[in-house]
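Lab manual, section 2.4: Encoding a predicted structure.

Procedure: take the sequence of the chain (99 residues), apply the prediction step described in section 2.3, and record the output as structure tokens. A sample record is shown.
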Amino acid sequence: MIALDNGVLRVSGTMRLPEAMALRDAGLALLPSAKSIDLSAVEDVDSSAIAVLLAWERASGGSDDPLPVTGAPAGLTSLALLYEVSSYCGLDADEATAR
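Recorded output:
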């Protein structure tokens, strides 16, 4: 599920391949009013979550000033660190917990 709340794009549930295209499209529709992305209610991710975040960030202006992402699950920050895309996804690589 995805909703816009006071400029925050809030995502809940899962961000896996079966949901990826619907999440991408729903987020793109809400993105013009978003100032940040909150993933604190996301329960499960796979690598397609990175693709969704990259699509949202490209649409918002790209890596020059990515939308900040808060509450990212550890698995997502680990994937972003592994793929070396943290700075492009609005994720802080220093907070990633991949080891």
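Check your result against the sample. The helical segments are 17-30, 48-60, 74-83.
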